[in-house]
Amino acid sequence: MTLTIDFSKVLGVQKWTLSATFDQPITAIMGPSGAGKTTLFKCICGLLPVDNGTIVFNGVNWENVPTEQRRIGYLPQDLALFPNLTVAGNLGFGLSVSHVDRLTISQKVTEIANYLNIEHLLNRQISALSGGEKQRVAMGRALIVNPALLLFDEPFNGLDEATRQACLELVNKIVADKNIQLLLITHHQQEADALTKTVYIVENGMLKLS
Ligand SMILES: Nc1ncnc2c1ncn2[C@@H]1O[C@H](COP(=O)(O)OP(=O)(O)OP(=O)(O)O)[C@@H](O)[C@H]1O
């Protein structure tokens, strides 16, 4: 799987000129706060339009491909779980908005919950979950739509060391089992090192291989 980006983006007074070819199963993206890492992800998703240039995934130019057809599982920095839905409702959300029938949604929710060991949480409210459990639900919600590309924005923030280790192992398993490409934003070098040798830095509006 190969994601090639070559675009510029202006937001306010900032300009990014971002070029790279991501072809490893896992790539870490690092860089100082405010450098533009989340902006990069939003552009790849199509949530922010690029000003000039291209984003090409496996040979397909995404210029006219809407977000929902890009097969991306996006895990935003704040997880953005829906507090008024149960765990099952959160997991199934991406399928329900795509008008998948209820039986299929229920089967897929059970399948992904078993895979992530959260089946005992399916009827819980989001407010009644621990940080690590929320993390797993957010990963499940990203995975259930059968993505080809995962974008995880600082997914392990605020977790204790043991839970962080468990999540790192889970991420490695997901990428290997499901043959998905993952880009992961992190501020922690050891997190990047645990997952990949390929680390890019966003700095001064550019993307550089570290
Ligand atoms: N909609 C917007 N309009 C104007 N400026 C924006 C907008 N969104 C983000 N920015 C600015 O763009 C810069 C990059 O933001 P971004 O969220 O991509 O940084 P980041 O590298 O992900 O930071 P962090 O590590 O703190 O999460 C910041 O200075 C931010 O204030």
UniProtKB/TrEMBL annotation:
Record's keyword annotation contains Nucleotide-binding: yes
PROSITE patterns to which the protein is assigned, alphabetical: ABC_TRANSPORTER_1, ABC_TRANSPORTER_2
Membrane-crossing residue ranges in chain numbering: none
Keyword line: ATP-binding, Nucleotide-binding, Transport
Chain ranges of the ABC transporter domain: 2-209
Record bears the keyword Transport: yes
GO terms of molecular function: ATP binding; ATP hydrolysis activity
Pfam family of the protein (one): ABC_tran
Record-linked PANTHER family: SPERMIDINE/PUTRESCINE IMPORT ATP-BINDING PROTEIN POTA (PTHR42781), SPERMIDINE_PUTRESCINE IMPORT ATP-BINDING PROTEIN POTA (PTHR42781:SF4)
Protein name: ABC transporter domain-containing protein
